[in-house]
Write a structure and sequence with these properties.
The chain is of the alpha/beta class. The protein contains 11 helices and 12 strands. The strands form 2 sheets. Strands 7-6-5-4-3-2-1-8-9-10 form a 10-stranded mixed beta sheet, covered by helices on one side. The protein has a two-stranded antiparallel sheet with strand order 11-12. Helix 7 links the parallel strand 5 and strand 6. Helix 2 packs parallel to helix 3 and helix 4 crosses helix 6.
């Protein structure tokens, strides 16, 4: 048994998970609540990460939304939803590659949106950091995937120094609620976590989000990058040990049911896939989907902003996320299905109708 960070016993956590399952079934699925809205600003990126779930890079975009279309969409959402309860998350690709990025986000600020961003940090100069504060950015997560050599191998660009400078520019600017680093852990950087911890602690970021590489996107074609069972255990032991060891909190991401012993020990919440019940996304081309990490399959597109009002789509579509669609095959008779409901949608294989990754048999 690992370190207990939550102060909760396994029976207490089991009871909490039972309550959450009841809430999911009887409240959330019948009455979904939009809390997080992602906007994919672009699928262009100045890096070419070996794991990218969206296959971003140097891409000629077809049918990309204009500045006016995105701003009109934000105005429509403000009419239809209480945006004081909504977090707007902008991402890509690399969102700062959009030449009209600051115009869009200034419009969002003027409408009253709270917003945050995920970025590779390479374009965050002191001037960009200042503009991000002026346009109301509250939170930001910057990707750093190893020490310098490993990070640049993984991202296939000589970008490490600019990424660290981008983080430092944000911290120097100040005025943001939360500056975070996110690291995708794979075979090559697992052994670097202790050195990364010391380095990131010295920077002064508020938190370090440590997640495992997922068998999706480009990573699915490179199985040699994926972790094995013993490496997963090492990863979670590291997070347990370092979670509250210093001023910088170390936490796991939102993905995957971890079992009663590990739940709440590596992150401040119990597992619940938010796709389609708390979270929706607008793709760069106007398509409405649930989570941007899901495969871009026609059956997972719920509508398009150019022909559908999002409120109608949210209320009438997203059905597979609000039912037991995935209670099939090996999941149908699993004793843990009540708590994971098929685990994370983004790691589900929609052809074989089974999870690409399940931590049963590894962590629990």
């Amino acid at each position: 048994m690992g370190i207990s960070n939550s102060g909760l016993s396994v029976p207490v956590k089991q009871n909490h998970m039972e309550q959450l399952a009841e809430y999911r079934e009887n409240v959330l699925r019948p009455h979904p609540q939009l809390h997080t809205l992602f906007i994919e600003m672009t699928v262009n990126c100045n890096e070419h990460c070996r794991h990218c779930g969206s296959n971003c890079g140097d891409i000629t975009e077809s049918g990309a939304l204009s500045k006016e279309e995105i701003i009109a969409f934000l105005a429509q959402v403000r009419e239809d939803f209480p945006i004081k309860d909504l977090m707007l998350c902008v991402t890509g690709g690399e969102p700062l590659l959009r030449p009209d990025f600051f115009e869009i986000m200034n419009a969002a600020k003027e409408m009253g949106y709270a917003w945050g961003m995920t970025s590779n940090g390479t374009l965050i100069t002191p001037e960009a950091a200042h503009k991000l504060r002026l346009t109301g950015m509250r939170t930001v997560s910057i990707s750093v995937d190893g020490l310098k050599e490993t990070h640049e191998w993984f991202r296939q660009r000589k970008s490490y120094d600019r990424t660290i400078e981008g983080i430092q520019n944000l911290l120097n600017e100040g005025g943001f609620d939360h500056v975070q680093i996110t690291t995708v852990v794979f075979k090559k950087n697992l052994s670097e976590l202790d050195k990364m911890y010391r380095q990131f602690s010295g920077l002064g970021v508020r938190s370090w989000r440590v997640i495992n590489i997922e068998p999706i996107g480009r990573a699915k074609e490179q199985p040699e990058l994926l972790l094995d069972a013993e490496e997963y255990k090492k990863l979670f032991d590291f997070i347990r040990e370092k979670r509250f060891a210093g001023k910088m909190e170390v936490c796991y991401g939102c993905s995957h049911f971890l079992g009663a012993e590990t739940e709440r020990e590596v992150r401040p919440w119990y597992f619940l896939c938010n796709a389609g019940v708390y979270t929706a996304s607008l793709c760069y081309n106007g398509d409405f989907v649930s989570c941007l990490d899901l495969p871009r399959l026609p059956k997972l597109v719920e509508g398009n902003v150019r022909k559908d009002r999002f409120k109608d789509v949210w209320e009438k579509k997203y059905r597979i996320y609000r039912t037991d669609y995935r209670k099939v095959g090996k999941c149908a008779d699993c004793e843990y299905y009540r708590y994971c409901a098929g685990d994370s949608f983004h790691s589900w294989d929609f052809d074989r109708m089974e999870p690409n990754l399940c931590l049963k048999g590894i962590l629990f």
